[in-house]
Design goal:
By secondary structure, the protein is mainly beta. The two termini are 65 Å apart. The chain folds into 6 domains: 12-129, Sandwich (Immunoglobulin-like); 134-225, Carboxypeptidase-like, regulatory domain (Immunoglobulin-like), CATH 2.60.40.1120; 230-325, Immunoglobulin-like (Sandwich); 330-434, Immunoglobulin-like (Sandwich); 438-530, Sandwich (Immunoglobulin-like), CATH 2.60.40.1120; 583-729, no CATH class. Mean pLDDT is 90; it is low at 1-34 and 343-348. Strands 1, 29, 30, 32, 33, 34 and 35 form a 7-stranded antiparallel β-sheet that branches. Strands 3, 4, 6, 7 and 8 form a 5-stranded antiparallel β-sheet that branches. Helix 2 crosses helix 7, helix 3 (583-593) packs across helix 4 and helix 5 crosses helix 6.
Length: 732
């Protein structure tokens, strides 16, 4: 089990090593091959006074990855290379680096000369001259009592990032810089930092002044006065005889889930710590342990930052006495079994497991690797948690997301079984049975109609109820996004070279994106998203997916303003197609279908269950005035409308027949529907509706049809009825 780190602790020299050397080949020859190999040799020429043995020559591209160092005369040999084409890079690995990295034949990799090796060949004369980079020099001033040698200077610019150490007298030189503007930063190496990190000339990174450099030349006078930093000191107390091992991060927010910490420090065995390098401000402290004994927590023994108290410091203040007590850690573990994933994804078929608090905040998480079948979430504070599988949006998996106990993501998370863990308790057997999720496949094209590669494809919901899944398009523009639950999703494709994202429905406006339905374990082909043919689109209903029954009729209803649906705060718009139509809404539909004719609602309601001012009062009284609905006569001779009662299909037929003006029609002597006798209420109106093609009913066994007269009319079917009515009679 590998815990998923929620923090990134980066030191400057490590960053430099990663930038300059981490991207290079590993320096070991590729495994032996059966075929004959070739070699590349040559000479590296360096300026006088530079040690040629520090020059590394690497096959940055080619069948065999290898790097070697030149000898004192600059000669090098890359042996045992498989046949193929190679790009060679030459890098000064001295500290500090003085020479500019380069590729054979050109400084730019894309313009470099390819070296072709054939089986058994010895390619010679691959010579390269390396040039001296530019330099930036200056002096660093620090507060009294601070050693300038603790400060490191970094220059970021063309060709990469280089660093230089500060001498005891405050002077420094950064070497090996390419021609162009450089951002120069100053920071104290180590904790607690007594000074504030800054960019020249005392600004943020975005506000830094670029220092112009010419390779081979020096820039001087780039001086920096470093300001004193605030510090926070405290202790996480542990019982006598125990020890603490961990670190504390100081975070400013506002989003404490992103690990955007300002500073960090190790916590000693006695629980004491000091964090420096802080500007004036207010912060929250996060304590993480390196063993399983103590719980990870925020200051005040809280599982999440929101409840943790702020700690404020003034400029240069040394705040002491911030105390906490370590809490014995709880843990949750279990096994995962079930249906194997249908195949590897871009990140394998592992699984993320998260412990979520009752307010929905993620308290801790881990990643179960592909080869494992068990998991453990450790360092938890005591409490009750929902354990979720595959709900981490940063982790790609082929499995459907779910909550304990085996609750599919499509069922929501509120019904998950809570897991309660006491301080120091190890809760086990919190198991999951997983199944392969659904998939979306499709293709994305650029503005010229060509396949678009490396576009990020997001499958998401507007309210975040279902975890966002993603993948990247292949060279031919095709994509496959896996791990979906049963439900409705939207799709977006993002590509920096285009004008912006493109969305399902082939539209460029996110508000007009169309939802797509998927079923767990099945594939849905969403078709092609094309920048060449995409339009702004028009807003539909988020719960009426592409390809849904009556989707065109429902969209027509919206376009005509007959139904506006429901608009949510997150921008989503729903129609609720499978919800029965109530009698008050039916009145509104028919009033709008008729073009919203001029009508003054009565001052006194004709129905005792319909107060003046009720929703759709005008539309209902218009319906009554036109004789389309007469309501019910009650025992006391009063009339009721029953506005919240669903409309049955037989009553709907009567409404439409009356709306059409009760045209001449002779009902058939033999009913066209097996469930509609000729003596049934509204028989004439129902058979008229069928004769007009407004309702076709359901096909049953034996080549018969049913009408289901007492079944409530759903909103999707009502859209179809009104569309067909309008087509036939042209009401609007």
């Amino acid at each position: 089990m590998k815990g998923k780190s929620r923090g990134r602790y980066r030191l400057a020299l490590t960053l430099l090593a990663a930038l300059f050397l981490g991207a290079l080949p590993a320096g070991l020859a590729s495994p032996a091959v059966a075929a004959a190999t070739g070699s590349i040799s040559g000479t590296v020429t360096v300026p006088a006074g530079v040690d040629a043995t520090k020059i590394m020559v690497a096959t940055l591209a080619g069948p065999t990855q290898k790097n070697v160092w030149a000898d004192a005369e600059g000669k090098f040999l890359l042996p045992a290379l498989e046949a193929g084409q190679y790009n060679l890079q030459f890098v000064d690995t001295a500290a500090p680096m003085q020479l500019l990295p380069t590729f054979y034949g050109n400084r730019d990799r894309e313009q470099s000369t390819v070296v072709t090796v054939t089986a058994g060949s010895a390619i010679t004369g691959i010579n390269q001259t390396m040039t001296m980079g530019g330099t930036i020099a200056g002096e660093v001033s620090v507060p009294a009592g601070v050693n300038p040698a603790g400060v490191t200077v970094i220059a970021e610019g063309p060709g990469g990032t280089n660093s230089g150490a500060v001498n005891n007298d405050g002077t420094y030189v950064v070497r090996g810089l390419g021609t162009g503007g450089h951002k120069v930063s100053f920071f104290h190496y180590g904790q607690p930092s007594p000074v504030l990190s800054t960019y020249y000339p005392g600004a943020s990174r975005d506000g830094a002044t670029l220092v112009p450099v010419t390779e081979g030349a020096g820039v001087t006078g780039i001086n920096q006065v470093m300001q004193p930093a605030a510090m926070i000191s405290g202790q996480v107390s542990v019982p006598m005889g125990s020890s603490y091992d961990g670190q504390v991060t100081v975070e400013a927010g506002p989003d404490f889930t992103k690990n955007n910490f300002v500073s960090t420090a190790f916590i000693g065995a006695d629980g004491r710590y000091t964090v420096g390098g802080l500007p004036a401000g207010k912060y929250k402290l996060h304590f993480r342990t390196n063993n399983q004994k103590w719980a990870n927590m925020w200051h005040g023994a809280f599982a999440v930052a929101d409840k943790s108290p702020w700690v404020s410091v003034a400029a240069g203040q040394q705040l002491t006495g911030v105390t906490d007590s370590a809490v014995a850690a709880a843990s949750v573990s279990g096994s995962v079994s079930g249906q194997p994933a249908p195949g590897p994804t871009m990140s394998g078929s592992g699984m993320s497991i998260t412990a979520v608090m009752q307010d929905g905040t993620v308290a801790a998480s881990t990643v179960m690797e592909t080869s494992q079948t068990t998991y453990s979430i450790r360092n938890l504070l005591p409490g009750s948690y929902r354990i979720q599988f595959n709900r981490d949006p940063d982790f790609v998996s082929s499995y459907e997301a779910q909550s304990y106990k085996d609750l599919p993501e499509s069922s929501g998370t509120a019904g998950a079984t809570l897991v309660t863990a006491q301080a120091g308790q190890a809760v086990s057997n919190i198991n999951a049975t997983v199944r392969a999720g659904g998939t979306f496949t499709g293709k994305v094209l650029d503005s010229q109609g060509r396949p678009l590669a490396n576009a990020r494809i997001n499958v998401y919901t507007k309210d975040g109820s279902l975890v966002t899944r993603f993948d990247y398009s292949m060279a031919d523009g095709t994509f496959k996004v896996t791990g979906l639950t049963t439900g409705l999703y939207f799709v977006s494709a993002e590509e920096g070279a285009e004008s912006g994202p493109i969305f399902s429905g082939n539209v460029t406006n996110a508000a007009n994106a169309r939802s797509i339905s998927t079923v767990v374990g099945q594939n849905t082909d969403i078709g092609t998203l094309s920048y060449a043919t995409a339009t702004e689109g028009k807003q539909g209903f988020d719960d009426v997916p592409l390809g849904a029954q009556f989707q065109d009729e429902i969209q027509w209803l919206a376009d005509k303003g007959i139904s506006t649906g429901w608009q949510a705060g997150d921008g989503s718009r729903t129609y609720q197609p499978l919800t029965p139509v109530n009698r008050d809404a039916m009145a509104a539909f028919m009033y709008r279908l008729s073009g919203k004719p001029a009508f003054t609602a009565p001052a006194v309601s004709p129905f005792k269950d319909l107060p003046v001012g009720a929703q759709f009062f005008k539309e209902i009284t218009w319906l009554a005035d036109k004789g389309i609905s007469t309501g019910w006569e009650e025992a006391d001779k009063s009339k009721t409308y029953r506005p919240l009662q669903p409309v049955n299909r037989d009553a709907m037929a009567a409404f439409m027949y009356r709306l059409a003006g009760e045209p001449e029609f002779t009902a058939p002597k033999v009913s066209p529907f097996v469930d509609l006798p000729t003596t049934a209420q509204f028989y004439k109106e129902i058979t008229w509706l069928a004769a007009q093609g407004i309702s076709t009913g359901w096909a049953e066994a034996g080549n018969t049809k049913s009408f289901r007269p007492l079944q409530p009319v759903n909103r999707d079917a009502m859209a179809a009825f009104m569309f067909r009515y309008n087509t036939k009679f042209g009401s609007i």
